[in-house]
Design brief:
The protein has about 500 residues and is of the alpha+beta class. It has 3 domains: about 190 residues, Phosphorylase Kinase, domain 1 (2-Layer Sandwich); about 200 residues, Transferase(Phosphotransferase) domain 1 (Transferase(Phosphotransferase), domain 1), CATH 1.10.510.10; about 70 residues. The strands form 5 sheets. Strands 3-4-5-6-8-7 form a 6-stranded antiparallel β-sheet. A 3-stranded antiparallel β-sheet has the order 9-11-12. The chain has a two-stranded antiparallel sheet with strand order 1-2. It is elongated and about 105 Å long. About 15% of the residues have low confidence.
């Protein structure tokens, strides 16, 4: 079997920059570069050569020439003109930050507090970056609102395949109208550096929450899970598969308890034969489905497996499948079961663990059928957790959700009572056996005429036949009563 390519060579990456690769290969290389740090750094190095800078980002050379002006000093940065409020960067950032921070493409702004202007948006600062680009905080004067502007990374802007993927992200997200999916205000796919505009929301990613806090409590797991499932249900209704559901792509709004899905960059239309190809591994390895790990065609059920992995991470503070290498992670996803959640976090109820394991079924047919069903199920479970005496746990066809551990606790008293019944019963039976085997079962034969009768004092009244028979009858009655009590308790 042919081993998958680990890294692309310099010539291939140079041809990607020059848009000289055939379209299918260009798409594969662009997707690989977005996930592979080593290839991305090599591509950035190629893109950073003088001829490229002169075309796309010559102004970044000034940043490289005076990096101290852009390093964090604990009090905020200053630019070359002495302006305060310039975004600061940690001194440990690698060289690629200069490419991401390509502000040369911004038009001058008449507001000295701004970094520049992009179309109708005044750019205040850089608020994030990723494999596909950089996210800027902007202000739209006409509507007096703040926005988040996602700009395609300069080293990808010359690739037709990367531009198409970027535009596809905007189209896929704009097609989904749901409060739990990040909306798209506008898109400029033909700009020098393509960009899309989203609402600016004060939020953090679920991954940031997990990194800071560790495992979440049951209510938060259910609340975040059901809202993420609602967003997925809306995407699936449009025929879209997200393909990259992970904590980093789930945003948690800080002012309200709202969850939003973002980054549909890997989304594919299920019926788009030109984009849905087998043999291509796309997504984040630790949250991939088995079919993604195999490079097979996927449908909405792949997102459900990834959602199950997210739920697992919220319960335990770590993804379900971990290994030292990417290929190790993919192998675990395909072949092994995750460690039981309750072994890691005993506070998670048994029924929630069963829901997560159902979503993590290797076969798509064995998972919960739809994101809508998951959202409904988690909503009912959340209602039970909030009002356990008023709302019962839902019952579904594939499992009885009431907590088996709680049932065991409830049954512990009854078990102790039954144990006592059987101990008494055993003692009674043992006493009966002793009486039955130690003494004669017939009356003593009267003495023959002329033989002396034993003195009454030599006879123990308890050994008299009539007394012995009475004891046996009483024991038998006690055994029958204890047996009846035990049977009734077992029922």
């Amino acid at each position: 079997m042919t081993q998958p390519i680990t890294h692309y060579d310099r010539d291939c990456l140079q041809r990607l920059l020059e848009d000289a690769l055939p379209e299918p290969l260009a798409g594969d290389v662009a997707e690989h570069v977005a996930e592979c740090g080593e290839c991305r750094r090599q591509l950035e190095s190629l893109a950073g050569e003088p001829q490229w800078w002169s075309q796309a980002c010559s102004g970044v050379k000034e940043i490289l020439g005076e990096p101290a002006a852009y390093l964090s000093d604990g009090s905020g940065g200053r630019d070359k003109q002495g302006r305060d409020g310039v975004p600061t960067y940690d001194s440990g950032s690698d060289d690629s930050f200069a490419t991401d921070f390509a502000v040369d493409f911004l038009e001058p702004s008449d507001d000295s507090a701004m970094l520049g202007r992009l179309g109708e948006y005044e750019i205040l600062e850089v608020i994030g970056r990723g494999g596909m680009g950089v996210v800027l905080k902007g202000h739209q004067r006409e509507l007096n609102r703040y926005v988040a502007v996602k700009v395609l990374a300069p080293y990808l802007a010359l690739s037709a395949a990367a531009r198409k993927r970027f535009a596809r992200e905007a189209q896929a997200t704009a097609a989904v109208v749901n409060p739990h999916v990040m909306a798209i205000h506008a898109v400029a796919a033909t700009a020098k550096l393509p960009y899309l505009v989203m609402p600016f929301v004060a939020c953090e990613s679920l991954q940031q929450r997990l990194d800071r806090q560790g495992p979440l409590d049951v209510k938060d797991v259910l609340r975040i899970g059901l809202q993420a499932a609602s967003g997925l249900a809306a995407a699936h209704a449009q025929g879209l598969v997200h393909r990259d559901v992970k904590p980093a792509n789930i945003l948690l709004e800080t002012s309200v308890e709202r969850v939003m899905l973002t980054d549909f960059g890997l989304a594919r239309a299920v019926d788009d034969a030109t984009l849905t190809r087998t043999g291509i591994i796309a997504g984040t390895p630790q949250y991939m489905s088995p079919e993604q790990a195999n490079g097979d065609a996927v449908d909405h059920r792949s997102d459900l497996f990834s959602l199950g992995s997210v739920l697992y991470a919220m319960c335990t503070g770590r993804p379900p499948f971990r290994a030292e290498t990417t290929f190790g992670v993919l192998r675990r996803i395909r072949e092994t079961s995750p460690r039981p959640i309750r072994e890691i976090n005993a506070d998670i109820p048994d029924w929630l663990e069963r829901i997560v394991l159902k979503l993590l079924s290797k076969s798509p047919e064995d998972r919960i059928a739809s994101a809508t069903e998951i959202a409904t199920l988690l909503e009912q479970c959340l209602a039970h957790v909030q009002q356990p005496t008023a709302v019962e746990l839902p019952k579904v066809g594939w499992a009885l959700l009431p907590d088996r551990s709680e049932a065991r606790k409830a049954g512990s008293g009854k078990s102790a009572q039954l144990t006592r019944h059987w101990l008494v019963l055993g003692a009674a039976v043992l006493a009966a056996i002793v009486l039955a085997t130690a003494w004669p079962k017939t009356k003593p034969i009267p003495n023959s005429p002329g033989e002396p009768t034993p003195e009454p004092s030599t006879l123990n009244p308890l050994l008299d036949w009539n007394a012995t028979q009475t004891e046996l009858d009483d024991t038998a009655a006690t055994i029958e009563q204890l047996d009846a009590d035990a049977k009734r308790d077992l029922e």
